């Protein structure tokens, strides 16, 4: 969780305290005026700082929940759209990126067989695998119920990332004690396509569907 709200609230509180101190000194020639209960004044200032921190914390919580998926902690679709909109305004300076779309195979069967609580556990663990596998500069987004969108920034090879994710998911399958796999569509150098986000996701979805069909054919 970012500290933007708390930092801003404390900054405003500090500026107010400095302003009051300067005003008191210029008005009376001293920080403490006669008759002022210094102890009460000190505790009052501490209470102001605590209140400012708490208000900032509530702002940070709201900001976090507006950008993150509650189950997995990764970014949500709203954040991605806002990020992509900001990206469009600085297209000449944007960093290249590739796009990967992950869909958990036979997820409905997992829910029907093991229950929705296990289904939620699978989604959370897949998100955890993605966090461990990908770099901090990459962006993970929960795109839908059992779909994750990955923005691989820079010159990373998306095909290698897909293979690495698949390998780590095999280890997760062994932990869960039932088969778990995912189909991952790869859209290399998506930033060079000059398309909007929905068009890019649609292209990645087509690639993911092709891979899913190939997997089904190989299993027959």
UniProtKB/TrEMBL annotation:
Signal peptide: none annotated. GO terms for molecular function: diguanylate cyclase activity. The chain crosses the membrane at residues 7-26, 38-57. It holds the Pfam family GGDEF. It comes from the Bacteria. The keyword Phosphoprotein does not apply. InterPro entries: Diguanylate_Cyclase, GGDEF_dom, Nucleotide_cyclase, Rev_trsase/Diguanyl_cyclase. SMART domains: GGDEF. Keywords: Membrane, Transmembrane, Transmembrane helix. Residues 95-220 form the GGDEF domain. NCBIfam families: GGDEF. This is GGDEF domain-containing protein. It comes from Ectobacillus ponti.
């Amino acid at each position: 969780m970012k500290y933007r709200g708390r930092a801003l609230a404390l900054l405003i509180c500090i500026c107010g305290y400095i302003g009051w101190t300067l005003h008191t000194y210029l008005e009376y020639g001293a920080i403490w005026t006669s008759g002022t209960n210094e102890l009460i004044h000190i505790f009052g200032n501490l209470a102001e700082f605590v209140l400012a921190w708490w208000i900032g914390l509530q702002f940070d919580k709201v900001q976090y929940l507006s950008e993150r998926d509650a189950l997995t902690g990764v970014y949500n679709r709203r954040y991605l759209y806002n990020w992509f909109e900001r990206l469009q305004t600085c297209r000449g300076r944007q960093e290249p990126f590739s796009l990967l779309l992950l869909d958990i195979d036979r997820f409905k069967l997992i829910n029907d067989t093991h229950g929705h609580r296990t289904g939620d556990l699978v989604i959370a663990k897949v998100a955890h695998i993605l966090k461990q596998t990908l770099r901090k500069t990459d962006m993970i987004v929960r795109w839908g119920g059992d779909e994750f969108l990955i923005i691989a920034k820079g010159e990373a090879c998306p095909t290698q990332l897909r293979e690495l994710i698949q390998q780590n998911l095999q280890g997760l399958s062994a932990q869960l004690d039932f088969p778990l796999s995912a189909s991952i569509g790869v859209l290399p150098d998506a930033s060079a396509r000059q398309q909007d986000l929905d068009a890019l996701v649609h292209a990645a979805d087509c690639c993911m569907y092709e891979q899913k069909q190939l997997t089904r054919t190989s299993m027959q």
